[in-house]
Write a structure and sequence with these properties.
With about 60 residues, the protein is an alpha+beta fold. The protein contains two helices and two strands, in the order E-E-H-H. The chain has a two-stranded antiparallel sheet. The protein is globular and about 35 Å long. It starts with a strand and ends in an 18-residue tail after the last helix.
């Protein structure tokens, strides 16, 4: 899986997120349907107070140095 960059985010006191970036849609789909995602979703009821939400976004501009 080709995750080029990822960030763990704190959105509020009780809400967190992860932002992953991929060079192409195939990499994103492989990541979302791969074994790590499956393992996380299987453990979701005991790890999280509500089911994880996956929102797909498209980055339209970026600057990485």
């Amino acid at each position: 899986v080709t995750t080029t960059v990822w960030f763990a985010l704190r959105l509020s006191d009780r809400e967190f997120g992860v932002f992953d970036a991929f060079p192409h849609e195939a990499g994103r789909q492989a990541h979302l349907t791969g074994p790590i995602a499956a393992a996380l979703m299987a453990k979701a009821p005991e790890l999280f107070s509500e089911p994880p939400r996956i929102d797909k976004v498209d980055v339209i501009a970026a600057k990485l140095t």
